[in-house]
Amino acid sequence: MSLNNTEVFPYSEEKLVKAEMRILSTLKTPHKTFYVPIKLPTGSNEKIWTIAFNTKSKNTPILLVHGFAAGSCFWLLNFDALAKNRPVYALDLIGFGRSSRPEFEDNGIEAEKQIVDSIEEWRKEMDLEKFILVGHSMGGYICTAYTIDYPDRVEHLVLCDPWGFSDRKAYPNIQIKALCYLYSKISPLDFLRTLGPLGPWWIKTTCDDIVDNYKNVLEDRSIMAKYIYHCNAQNPTGEQAFTTMVKKIGRARNPMIRRVNNLREDLPVTILYGKNTWMDKEMGKRIKDMRPNSIDVRYIDNAGHHIYSERAELFNEIVITVSDSVDQKKEKENVLHTINDEGKKLNNMNNTSDKLN
User: Fold this and answer.
1) How far apart are CA 149 and CA 116, in angstroms?
2) 327 in Cβ contact with 62 (< 8 Å)
3) Which phi and psi (to 5°) does residue 240 adopt?
4) Considering the entire predicted model, what is its pTM?
5) 3-class SS of residue 67
């Protein structure tokens, strides 16, 4: 059972908002933040915290989906570059960050579906036809599940060191095995909440690799640590949903490697693995072998699990190239449609002329 007594574990909405505002204040691109109200198929009313950039652009939008125990501000080093020529949206998944904390089903498949359906309801409320979907870690797993369930909404799927694909028992070391086993048995961040006010200090100390990724824009290392703490010091329903999706030593109960062939056949997918990641990057080769014509797998030097912040410039370049290719393809299709339409009109005019003659 998770411990979430706010008197013992002092989550502060005010401090989370303050940390987020300080993080976003470093951006050069104007942005909007707001809640998007949704109603899940289960009947519950929820709200999804959203950050939006360059929304008036006609180019295909990008939707960024964070990983486990994270929030939208983890994409800080990507927002300005990605939003230069197109709309960019980042959301906090339900159960995480500033989004609402619904009770999830105890069944991992049903919990997964609740999160997937929440993204679709968000899309409807935002009146977005299609987007380029980018997910990190657990977010990559969720994005793949979304693309399987709603294939016509995704123009290109980008997976950044995705969790949940492997069906193998292999992990690189005993520490990771122990941690993954622990995560499958308890709500992973209960210990963090027991620390109370010491939580941000513990994150800054033990997650220094994540915090330091932002040191060039956030001189005060405590800001990101406070953001991470207050994202995770709340009622941990998202964590509980995650534990229902996990089997034994950190593998997904329903591994995505077994579902990749359910993706739309013509859907382009780009998968990025850090060469130093603890994820099972051998999955990349297996996926490529299964879908050789639509899958592009890349292994990024000098990167571990958090490629988007460890190698932000390269990550941005890859996603921008992918996004531009989507728009170029659409432009070509529009030209072909125009030519075909003009051809049909000309044929109709000729047919009408022949009849009159």
Assistant:
1) 8
2) no
3) -65, -40
4) 0.89
5) coil
Q: Which CA distances in Å does 68 have to 228, 301, 326?
A: 11, 23, 28
Taking all residues of the chain, what is their mean pLDDT, rounded to a whole number? 89
Residues 6+ apart with CB under 8 A from 204: 211, 221, 222, 225
Which tokens go with 189? 């961040």
Spatial CA neighbour of 79 closest among 94, 98, 66: 66
Task: Report which DSSP code applies to 257.
Answer: G
- Tokens encoding 281: 């990057």
Q: How many CA atoms lie within 13 A of 173 on its CB side?
A: 5
How many whole angstroms separate alpha carbon 90 and alpha carbon 311? 19
User: What mean pLDDT do residues 152-170 have?
Assistant: 93
**In degrees, to the nearest 5, what angle opens at C-alpha 162 toward C-alphas 159 and 168?**
135
Give strand ranges (E) for the chain. Answer: 31-39, 45-53, 62-65, 88-91, 131-136, 154-160, 246-247, 251-252, 269-274, 295-300
Return the residue matching tokens 């951006």: 27
End-to-end CA distance of the chain: 85
Residue type, 134: V
Give me 288's structure tokens: 């490529």
Q: What is the dihedral of CA 233, 234, 235, 241, to 10 degrees?
A: -70
By CB atoms closer than 10 A (0-12, 13-18, 19+), residue 193 is: buried
Query: How far from 25 is each of 20, 94, 218, 354, CA to CA, in Å?
Result: 8, 24, 10, 68
Residue 7 tokens, joined: 């008197």
Answer with the residue of higher pLDDT: 9 or 160.
160
DSSP designation for 254:
S
- Decide if 250 contacts 176 (C-beta within 8 A): yes
Nearest of 186, 191, 228 to residue 207 by alpha carbon:
228
Task: Mark out the alpha helices in 158-310 (DSSP H runs).
Answer: 174-183, 190-194, 199-206, 208-212, 222-232, 237-245, 282-290, 307-310
Number of H helices, E strands in the chain: 13, 10
Residue 255 confidence (pLDDT) above 90: yes
